[in-house]
């Protein structure tokens, strides 16, 4: 794994330890824990040959957990509530985990939808690309202009690049997005983060922008699709 400018520098050995910690959490509840955030983007990216080079190690992990499994997790790990951000946190093997609980978090995509469309990579369940896009856009809205916001922008570009390598269904993301999210994705597509992600390669940056634009057009077409006119009620006017 190579370190690129603007990306967090993390030794492969340390990242492998984080993945092992994630695997332990997943083993507790294989059907009730879904990874989101940067770790989920990594899992999607590394599992496609065309995007593996874009995969970025991270130093922490986020996951969504069912309400029932959260109760059991409290019995296994020391979990601390963060009521201000509607989440819980824990530290496992020195790594921080942010935990979002079914029906208790403020995430814009509900747990049942996330788990229903999730994908499993090597025993780790990751949110579908479409739901990751919605969640990342919402995070970017809050953190735009910060270092974390720049990371969100690069993750959004990665998601769009991965979308070109696997089936992407705008209709899965559309119910959770508004025009303000589309505008944010438009800004990301034009941002310098495409050049940063491409290691300064102008041609590769252009491709990344085009891939983001393609996802944007698909979302716009889905979200603004006109509804068919209602059939006249034959009972009216009688």
The string of secondary-structure elements, in order, is: HEHEHEEEHEEHHHHHH
Low-confidence residue ranges: 1-11
Radius of gyration: 19 Å
Q: Tell me, briefly, the overall form.
A: globular
Largest sheet: 5 strands, mixed
Q: Tell me the CATH topology.
A: Beta Polymerase, domain 2
Number of strands: 7
Oligomer: single chain
End-to-end gap: 73 Å
Biggest sheet strand order reads 1-2-5-4-3
Strand content: 5-15%
- Number of domain units: 1
The helix-and-strand class reads alpha+beta
Tally of DSSP helical segments: 10
Mean pLDDT: 91
Task: Describe the 3D structure.
It is a single chain. This protein has helices spanning 12-28, 37-46, 67-76, 111-116, 129-143, 147-163, 170-173, 179-190, 193-197, 202-223; strands at 33-36, 60-65, 80-82, 87-92, 95-101, 119-121, 124-126. The chain has a single domain, classed as Beta Polymerase, domain 2. It has a five-stranded mixed β-sheet with strand order 1-2-5-4-3. Strands 6-7 form a two-stranded antiparallel sheet. With 238 residues, it is α+β, with helices and mostly antiparallel strands.
